[in-house]
Amino acid sequence: MFGATGSIGQNTIDLIRRAPDDYNVVALTGAGNIAQLISDAKALRADIAVTADPARLAELRDGLAGTGIEAAAGEAALIEAAARPADWIMSAIVGAAGLAPGLEALKHGTTLALANKESLVTAGPLLMREAKRLGATVLPVDSEHSAVFQGLIGEDIAAVERIIITASGGAFRDHPLSALDTVSLAEASSHPNWDMGQRITIDSASMFNKAMELIETKEFFGVRANQIETIIHPESLIHALVGFNDGALMAHVGPPDMRHAIGFALHWPARKHLPVARLDLAAIGQLNFRAPEHARYPALAIAATVMQAGGLSGAVFNAAKEQALDYFIEGRCGFTDMARAVERVLDLMLSREGLENATITLDNVQAADAMARALTCEDLDKKRA
Ligand code: NDP
Q: Mind listing the pLDDT tens digit for each residue in 93-118?
Protein backbone atom coordinates (compact mmCIF):
# COMPACT_ATOMS: atom_id res chain seq x y z
CA MET A 1 0.00 0.00 0.00
CA PHE A 2 1.61 3.23 -1.22
CA GLY A 3 0.81 6.34 0.83
CA ALA A 4 -0.43 4.21 3.73
CA THR A 5 -0.01 7.02 6.29
CA GLY A 6 -2.21 9.49 4.37
CA SER A 7 -5.93 10.05 4.32
CA ILE A 8 -6.70 7.44 1.63
CA GLY A 9 -4.14 5.04 3.11
CA GLN A 10 -5.67 5.27 6.59
CA ASN A 11 -9.17 4.72 5.21
CA THR A 12 -7.89 1.65 3.37
CA ILE A 13 -6.26 0.35 6.54
CA ASP A 14 -9.51 0.91 8.41
CA LEU A 15 -11.23 -1.49 5.98
CA ILE A 16 -8.42 -4.05 6.10
CA ARG A 17 -8.31 -4.04 9.89
CA ARG A 18 -11.96 -5.04 9.99
CA ALA A 19 -11.07 -8.37 8.34
CA PRO A 20 -7.38 -8.90 9.11
CA ASP A 21 -7.42 -12.61 8.28
CA ASP A 22 -8.48 -11.85 4.70
CA TYR A 23 -5.28 -9.95 3.88
CA ASN A 24 -1.59 -10.60 3.79
CA VAL A 25 0.07 -7.18 3.68
CA VAL A 26 3.30 -7.08 1.71
CA ALA A 27 4.41 -3.43 1.93
CA LEU A 28 3.33 -0.19 3.55
CA THR A 29 4.86 3.14 2.56
CA GLY A 30 4.80 6.66 3.92
CA ALA A 31 7.04 9.70 4.06
CA GLY A 32 7.17 11.90 7.18
CA ASN A 33 4.71 10.20 9.51
CA ILE A 34 7.04 7.50 10.80
CA ALA A 35 5.10 6.80 14.00
CA GLN A 36 1.98 5.91 11.98
CA LEU A 37 3.99 3.81 9.56
CA ILE A 38 5.57 1.82 12.41
CA SER A 39 2.30 1.30 14.20
CA ASP A 40 0.44 0.15 11.05
CA ALA A 41 3.29 -2.07 9.86
CA LYS A 42 3.23 -3.84 13.22
CA ALA A 43 -0.56 -4.08 13.41
CA LEU A 44 -0.86 -5.46 9.87
CA ARG A 45 2.33 -7.55 10.11
CA ALA A 46 3.65 -6.15 6.83
CA ASP A 47 6.76 -7.68 5.26
CA ILE A 48 8.36 -4.26 4.67
CA ALA A 49 7.79 -0.61 5.61
CA VAL A 50 9.28 2.12 3.41
CA THR A 51 9.60 5.83 4.02
CA ALA A 52 10.19 8.12 1.03
CA ASP A 53 12.52 10.19 3.22
CA PRO A 54 16.02 8.65 3.58
CA ALA A 55 16.74 10.94 6.55
CA ARG A 56 14.06 9.08 8.54
CA LEU A 57 15.34 5.54 7.92
CA ALA A 58 17.12 5.16 11.27
CA GLU A 59 13.93 6.13 13.13
CA LEU A 60 11.88 3.64 11.10
CA ARG A 61 14.46 0.90 11.62
CA ASP A 62 14.56 1.53 15.39
CA GLY A 63 10.78 1.46 15.62
CA LEU A 64 10.61 -1.89 13.83
CA ALA A 65 13.58 -3.50 15.58
CA GLY A 66 12.83 -7.03 16.74
CA THR A 67 9.62 -7.35 14.70
CA GLY A 68 11.14 -9.02 11.64
CA ILE A 69 9.61 -6.28 9.46
CA GLU A 70 12.12 -4.86 6.97
CA ALA A 71 12.71 -1.10 6.91
CA ALA A 72 13.83 0.84 3.83
CA ALA A 73 13.89 4.40 2.53
CA GLY A 74 14.08 6.52 -0.59
CA GLU A 75 12.75 6.45 -4.13
CA ALA A 76 14.57 3.27 -5.13
CA ALA A 77 13.15 1.47 -2.09
CA LEU A 78 9.64 2.54 -3.11
CA ILE A 79 10.20 1.04 -6.55
CA GLU A 80 11.63 -2.13 -5.02
CA ALA A 81 8.53 -2.43 -2.82
CA ALA A 82 6.31 -1.94 -5.89
CA ALA A 83 8.15 -4.75 -7.65
CA ARG A 84 7.19 -7.23 -4.92
CA PRO A 85 4.33 -9.42 -6.15
CA ALA A 86 0.98 -8.53 -4.65
CA ASP A 87 -2.45 -9.11 -6.12
CA TRP A 88 -3.88 -5.74 -5.01
CA ILE A 89 -1.98 -2.49 -4.65
CA MET A 90 -3.28 0.82 -3.37
CA SER A 91 -1.61 3.79 -5.10
CA ALA A 92 -2.25 6.66 -2.66
CA ILE A 93 0.95 8.66 -2.60
CA VAL A 94 0.13 12.33 -3.10
CA GLY A 95 1.58 14.06 -6.15
CA ALA A 96 3.71 13.11 -9.14
CA ALA A 97 5.85 10.90 -6.88
CA GLY A 98 3.10 8.27 -7.17
CA LEU A 99 3.66 7.62 -10.87
CA ALA A 100 6.88 5.56 -10.86
CA PRO A 101 5.80 3.05 -8.15
CA GLY A 102 2.45 2.62 -9.92
CA LEU A 103 4.12 1.88 -13.25
CA GLU A 104 6.43 -0.60 -11.55
CA ALA A 105 3.50 -2.35 -9.85
CA LEU A 106 1.80 -2.90 -13.21
CA LYS A 107 4.71 -5.10 -14.28
CA HIS A 108 3.45 -8.04 -12.26
CA GLY A 109 -0.03 -7.82 -13.73
CA THR A 110 -1.59 -6.74 -10.49
CA THR A 111 -4.79 -4.87 -9.71
CA LEU A 112 -3.81 -1.25 -9.13
CA ALA A 113 -6.35 0.70 -7.10
CA LEU A 114 -5.53 4.19 -8.27
CA ALA A 115 -6.17 7.09 -5.91
CA ASN A 116 -3.07 8.93 -7.17
CA LYS A 117 -4.82 11.00 -9.82
CA GLU A 118 -1.51 12.62 -10.75
CA SER A 119 -0.55 9.35 -12.49
CA LEU A 120 -3.36 9.80 -15.00
CA VAL A 121 -2.93 13.56 -15.30
CA THR A 122 0.80 13.39 -15.98
CA ALA A 123 1.02 10.14 -17.92
CA GLY A 124 -2.47 8.75 -18.54
CA PRO A 125 -1.77 7.27 -21.99
CA LEU A 126 1.44 5.61 -20.72
CA LEU A 127 -0.19 4.15 -17.61
CA MET A 128 -3.26 2.82 -19.41
CA ARG A 129 -1.19 1.44 -22.30
CA GLU A 130 1.20 -0.32 -19.91
CA ALA A 131 -1.67 -1.78 -17.91
CA LYS A 132 -3.16 -3.24 -21.09
CA ARG A 133 0.16 -4.53 -22.35
CA LEU A 134 1.03 -6.18 -19.03
CA GLY A 135 -2.43 -7.60 -18.32
CA ALA A 136 -2.88 -5.49 -15.20
CA THR A 137 -6.14 -3.95 -14.03
CA VAL A 138 -6.44 -0.31 -13.00
CA LEU A 139 -9.43 0.52 -10.81
CA PRO A 140 -10.36 4.13 -10.06
CA VAL A 141 -10.47 5.18 -6.40
CA ASP A 142 -11.34 8.83 -6.85
CA SER A 143 -15.01 8.87 -5.84
CA GLU A 144 -16.16 10.49 -9.10
CA HIS A 145 -14.35 7.98 -11.26
CA SER A 146 -15.44 5.06 -9.14
CA ALA A 147 -18.98 6.37 -9.63
CA VAL A 148 -18.55 6.53 -13.42
CA PHE A 149 -16.93 3.08 -13.45
CA GLN A 150 -19.90 1.68 -11.54
CA GLY A 151 -22.32 3.47 -13.88
CA LEU A 152 -20.66 1.77 -16.83
CA ILE A 153 -20.85 -1.80 -15.55
CA GLY A 154 -22.62 -3.83 -18.23
CA GLU A 155 -22.79 -0.81 -20.55
CA ASP A 156 -21.11 -0.09 -23.88
CA ILE A 157 -18.82 2.96 -23.69
CA ALA A 158 -19.86 3.71 -27.30
CA ALA A 159 -23.38 4.44 -26.00
CA VAL A 160 -22.08 7.14 -23.62
CA GLU A 161 -22.89 10.70 -24.70
CA ARG A 162 -21.48 12.52 -21.71
CA ILE A 163 -19.99 12.13 -18.28
CA ILE A 164 -20.91 14.67 -15.62
CA ILE A 165 -18.44 15.08 -12.78
CA THR A 166 -19.90 16.80 -9.74
CA ALA A 167 -17.98 19.28 -7.60
CA SER A 168 -18.75 20.55 -4.13
CA GLY A 169 -17.35 23.95 -5.10
CA GLY A 170 -14.83 23.76 -2.25
CA ALA A 171 -14.24 26.16 0.61
CA PHE A 172 -14.86 29.34 -1.42
CA ARG A 173 -17.91 28.49 -3.48
CA ASP A 174 -19.87 31.32 -1.84
CA HIS A 175 -16.95 33.59 -0.95
CA PRO A 176 -16.97 37.08 -2.54
CA LEU A 177 -14.92 36.84 -5.73
CA SER A 178 -13.09 40.07 -4.97
CA ALA A 179 -11.86 38.66 -1.63
CA LEU A 180 -10.32 35.45 -3.05
CA ASP A 181 -6.90 37.11 -3.35
CA THR A 182 -6.54 37.35 0.41
CA VAL A 183 -7.97 34.07 1.73
CA SER A 184 -5.79 32.33 4.31
CA LEU A 185 -4.19 28.90 4.27
CA ALA A 186 -6.47 27.80 7.13
CA GLU A 187 -9.58 28.86 5.21
CA ALA A 188 -8.42 27.07 2.06
CA SER A 189 -7.60 23.93 4.05
CA SER A 190 -11.15 23.34 5.24
CA HIS A 191 -13.55 21.40 3.03
CA PRO A 192 -17.33 21.77 3.40
CA ASN A 193 -18.07 18.03 2.93
CA TRP A 194 -15.03 15.77 2.71
CA ASP A 195 -12.27 15.01 5.21
CA MET A 196 -9.11 14.67 3.07
CA GLY A 197 -5.39 15.43 3.02
CA GLN A 198 -4.44 19.14 3.10
CA ARG A 199 -3.17 19.34 -0.49
CA ILE A 200 -6.28 17.89 -2.12
CA THR A 201 -8.47 20.04 0.16
CA ILE A 202 -6.77 23.23 -1.07
CA ASP A 203 -6.97 21.90 -4.63
CA SER A 204 -10.72 21.50 -4.08
CA ALA A 205 -11.03 25.15 -3.05
CA SER A 206 -9.21 26.26 -6.22
CA MET A 207 -10.87 23.52 -8.31
CA PHE A 208 -7.46 22.34 -9.43
CA ASN A 209 -8.66 19.05 -8.04
CA LYS A 210 -11.70 19.10 -10.36
CA ALA A 211 -9.46 20.14 -13.26
CA MET A 212 -7.34 17.06 -12.58
CA GLU A 213 -10.45 14.90 -12.37
CA LEU A 214 -11.63 16.07 -15.78
CA ILE A 215 -8.30 15.07 -17.30
CA GLU A 216 -8.42 11.83 -15.32
CA THR A 217 -11.88 11.09 -16.78
CA LYS A 218 -10.64 11.59 -20.33
CA GLU A 219 -7.63 9.35 -19.78
CA PHE A 220 -9.30 6.60 -17.80
CA PHE A 221 -12.49 6.18 -19.82
CA GLY A 222 -11.07 7.19 -23.20
CA VAL A 223 -13.81 9.75 -23.91
CA ARG A 224 -13.39 13.10 -25.66
CA ALA A 225 -12.95 16.32 -23.71
CA ASN A 226 -16.22 17.70 -25.09
CA GLN A 227 -18.11 14.75 -23.55
CA ILE A 228 -17.07 15.72 -20.02
CA GLU A 229 -19.00 18.26 -17.96
CA THR A 230 -18.72 19.65 -14.43
CA ILE A 231 -21.54 20.78 -12.22
CA ILE A 232 -21.52 22.26 -8.73
CA HIS A 233 -23.46 20.03 -6.36
CA PRO A 234 -22.95 21.43 -2.86
CA GLU A 235 -24.17 18.32 -0.99
CA SER A 236 -21.52 16.01 -2.57
CA LEU A 237 -23.97 13.09 -2.54
CA ILE A 238 -24.10 12.45 -6.28
CA HIS A 239 -20.49 11.72 -7.21
CA ALA A 240 -20.90 11.56 -10.99
CA LEU A 241 -23.49 10.85 -13.68
CA VAL A 242 -23.19 8.98 -16.94
CA GLY A 243 -25.43 10.17 -19.79
CA PHE A 244 -26.33 7.64 -22.51
CA ASN A 245 -27.44 8.10 -26.11
CA ASP A 246 -31.08 7.44 -25.19
CA GLY A 247 -31.08 10.46 -22.86
CA ALA A 248 -30.86 8.39 -19.65
CA LEU A 249 -28.64 9.69 -16.86
CA MET A 250 -27.27 7.16 -14.39
CA ALA A 251 -26.23 8.79 -11.12
CA HIS A 252 -24.13 7.28 -8.38
CA VAL A 253 -25.40 8.47 -5.00
CA GLY A 254 -23.64 7.85 -1.70
CA PRO A 255 -22.32 9.53 1.43
CA PRO A 256 -19.10 11.58 1.19
CA ASP A 257 -16.95 8.80 2.64
CA MET A 258 -13.90 7.58 0.72
CA ARG A 259 -14.27 4.10 2.20
CA HIS A 260 -17.04 3.62 -0.36
CA ALA A 261 -14.82 3.97 -3.43
CA ILE A 262 -11.86 2.31 -1.69
CA GLY A 263 -14.02 -0.63 -0.57
CA PHE A 264 -15.49 -1.00 -4.06
CA ALA A 265 -11.97 -1.27 -5.51
CA LEU A 266 -10.85 -3.58 -2.68
CA HIS A 267 -13.62 -6.11 -3.21
CA TRP A 268 -14.16 -5.69 -6.97
CA PRO A 269 -15.67 -7.43 -8.86
CA ALA A 270 -17.73 -8.46 -5.81
CA ARG A 271 -19.69 -6.02 -3.68
CA LYS A 272 -19.32 -6.51 0.05
CA HIS A 273 -20.76 -4.83 3.10
CA LEU A 274 -19.05 -1.52 3.83
CA PRO A 275 -19.18 0.48 7.07
CA VAL A 276 -20.49 3.68 5.48
CA ALA A 277 -23.60 5.64 6.42
CA ARG A 278 -26.81 4.74 4.60
CA LEU A 279 -28.45 7.82 3.11
CA ASP A 280 -31.85 8.89 4.40
CA LEU A 281 -33.19 10.63 1.30
CA ALA A 282 -36.30 11.95 3.02
CA ALA A 283 -34.13 13.62 5.66
CA ILE A 284 -31.86 15.07 2.95
CA GLY A 285 -34.95 16.50 1.22
CA GLN A 286 -33.31 18.14 -1.75
CA LEU A 287 -30.23 18.08 -3.92
CA ASN A 288 -28.92 21.27 -5.50
CA PHE A 289 -26.99 21.93 -8.69
CA ARG A 290 -25.52 25.00 -10.32
CA ALA A 291 -23.16 25.77 -13.16
CA PRO A 292 -19.56 26.54 -12.12
CA GLU A 293 -18.51 30.20 -12.45
CA HIS A 294 -15.47 30.29 -14.65
CA ALA A 295 -14.12 33.51 -13.09
CA ARG A 296 -14.09 31.79 -9.69
CA TYR A 297 -12.51 28.60 -11.00
CA PRO A 298 -9.91 29.40 -13.70
CA ALA A 299 -8.55 25.87 -13.22
CA LEU A 300 -11.42 24.52 -15.33
CA ALA A 301 -10.31 26.47 -18.41
CA ILE A 302 -6.73 25.28 -17.79
CA ALA A 303 -7.99 21.68 -17.79
CA ALA A 304 -9.66 22.31 -21.15
CA THR A 305 -6.34 23.57 -22.56
CA VAL A 306 -4.53 20.48 -21.25
CA MET A 307 -7.11 18.07 -22.65
CA GLN A 308 -6.96 19.81 -26.00
CA ALA A 309 -3.14 19.83 -26.14
CA GLY A 310 -2.49 16.33 -24.76
CA GLY A 311 1.09 15.00 -24.83
CA LEU A 312 3.17 16.27 -21.93
CA SER A 313 0.89 19.20 -21.12
CA GLY A 314 -0.66 17.24 -18.24
CA ALA A 315 2.78 16.70 -16.69
CA VAL A 316 3.52 20.42 -16.98
CA PHE A 317 0.14 21.40 -15.59
CA ASN A 318 0.46 19.06 -12.63
CA ALA A 319 4.03 20.07 -11.77
CA ALA A 320 3.25 23.79 -12.02
CA LYS A 321 0.20 23.25 -9.85
CA GLU A 322 2.13 21.25 -7.24
CA GLN A 323 4.86 23.89 -7.14
CA ALA A 324 2.40 26.77 -6.86
CA LEU A 325 0.61 24.87 -4.09
CA ASP A 326 3.90 24.50 -2.19
CA TYR A 327 4.32 28.28 -2.46
CA PHE A 328 0.80 28.91 -1.19
CA ILE A 329 1.26 26.50 1.75
CA GLU A 330 4.57 28.18 2.61
CA GLY A 331 2.93 31.63 2.50
CA ARG A 332 4.99 32.67 -0.53
CA CYS A 333 2.06 33.42 -2.85
CA GLY A 334 -1.63 34.21 -2.62
CA PHE A 335 -4.49 31.85 -3.42
CA THR A 336 -5.33 33.32 -6.83
CA ASP A 337 -1.64 33.60 -7.79
CA MET A 338 -1.58 29.80 -8.13
CA ALA A 339 -3.87 29.62 -11.17
CA ARG A 340 -2.25 32.63 -12.82
CA ALA A 341 1.22 31.07 -12.49
CA VAL A 342 0.08 27.67 -13.74
CA GLU A 343 -1.58 29.27 -16.75
CA ARG A 344 1.52 31.30 -17.62
CA VAL A 345 3.89 28.34 -17.28
CA LEU A 346 1.63 26.08 -19.33
CA ASP A 347 1.27 28.73 -22.07
CA LEU A 348 5.01 29.31 -22.11
CA MET A 349 5.89 25.63 -22.34
CA LEU A 350 3.18 24.96 -24.91
CA SER A 351 4.53 27.74 -27.08
CA ARG A 352 8.16 26.67 -27.00
CA GLU A 353 8.52 23.02 -26.03
CA GLY A 354 6.31 21.14 -28.50
CA LEU A 355 4.56 19.40 -25.61
CA GLU A 356 1.63 18.23 -27.70
CA ASN A 357 3.60 15.87 -29.88
CA ALA A 358 6.08 14.58 -27.31
CA THR A 359 6.11 10.88 -26.52
CA ILE A 360 5.01 10.12 -22.99
CA THR A 361 7.70 8.12 -21.21
CA LEU A 362 8.60 8.24 -17.52
CA ASP A 363 11.82 10.11 -18.37
CA ASN A 364 10.01 12.69 -20.51
CA VAL A 365 7.36 13.20 -17.86
CA GLN A 366 10.02 13.72 -15.19
CA ALA A 367 11.96 16.17 -17.39
CA ALA A 368 8.84 18.20 -18.21
CA ASP A 369 7.92 18.11 -14.53
CA ALA A 370 11.31 19.49 -13.46
CA MET A 371 11.23 22.27 -16.04
CA ALA A 372 7.68 23.27 -15.12
CA ARG A 373 8.55 23.42 -11.41
CA ALA A 374 11.59 25.63 -12.11
CA LEU A 375 9.55 27.97 -14.32
CA THR A 376 6.78 28.20 -11.74
CA CYS A 377 9.27 29.17 -9.02
CA GLU A 378 10.74 31.78 -11.37
CA ASP A 379 7.29 33.13 -12.18
CA LEU A 380 6.14 33.38 -8.57
CA ASP A 381 9.48 34.72 -7.31
CA LYS A 382 9.38 37.44 -9.97
CA LYS A 383 5.93 38.41 -8.79
CA ARG A 384 7.17 38.81 -5.20
CA ALA A 385 10.30 40.71 -6.12
P1 NDP B 1 -2.26 12.71 2.11
O2 NDP B 1 -1.47 13.94 2.01
O3 NDP B 1 -3.21 12.54 3.24
O4 NDP B 1 -1.27 11.44 2.11
C5 NDP B 1 -0.26 11.32 1.15
C6 NDP B 1 0.55 10.07 1.36
O7 NDP B 1 1.70 10.12 0.50
C8 NDP B 1 1.11 9.92 2.77
O9 NDP B 1 1.27 8.56 3.06
C10 NDP B 1 2.47 10.61 2.66
O11 NDP B 1 3.36 10.22 3.68
C12 NDP B 1 2.91 10.11 1.32
N13 NDP B 1 3.88 10.97 0.64
C14 NDP B 1 3.94 12.33 0.66
N15 NDP B 1 4.94 12.77 -0.13
C16 NDP B 1 5.53 11.65 -0.66
C17 NDP B 1 6.62 11.44 -1.56
N18 NDP B 1 7.33 12.45 -2.08
N19 NDP B 1 6.95 10.17 -1.88
C20 NDP B 1 6.27 9.12 -1.37
N21 NDP B 1 5.21 9.27 -0.50
C22 NDP B 1 4.85 10.52 -0.17
O23 NDP B 1 -3.01 12.56 0.70
P24 NDP B 1 -4.41 11.91 0.40
O25 NDP B 1 -4.52 10.57 1.05
O26 NDP B 1 -5.46 12.92 0.61
O27 NDP B 1 -4.31 11.71 -1.18
C28 NDP B 1 -3.51 10.69 -1.75
C29 NDP B 1 -3.81 10.63 -3.24
O30 NDP B 1 -5.17 10.26 -3.42
C31 NDP B 1 -3.66 11.98 -3.96
O32 NDP B 1 -3.23 11.76 -5.26
C33 NDP B 1 -5.07 12.53 -3.97
O34 NDP B 1 -5.30 13.43 -5.03
C35 NDP B 1 -5.88 11.26 -4.14
N36 NDP B 1 -7.24 11.31 -3.64
C37 NDP B 1 -7.48 11.59 -2.33
C38 NDP B 1 -8.77 11.64 -1.85
C39 NDP B 1 -9.05 11.88 -0.40
O40 NDP B 1 -10.20 11.77 0.01
N41 NDP B 1 -8.09 12.17 0.43
C42 NDP B 1 -9.92 11.44 -2.75
C43 NDP B 1 -9.54 11.08 -4.07
C44 NDP B 1 -8.24 11.03 -4.51
P45 NDP B 1 3.37 10.93 5.15
O46 NDP B 1 1.96 11.25 5.50
O47 NDP B 1 3.98 9.88 6.01
O48 NDP B 1 4.22 12.15 5.02
A: 999 999 999 999 999 989 999 999 99
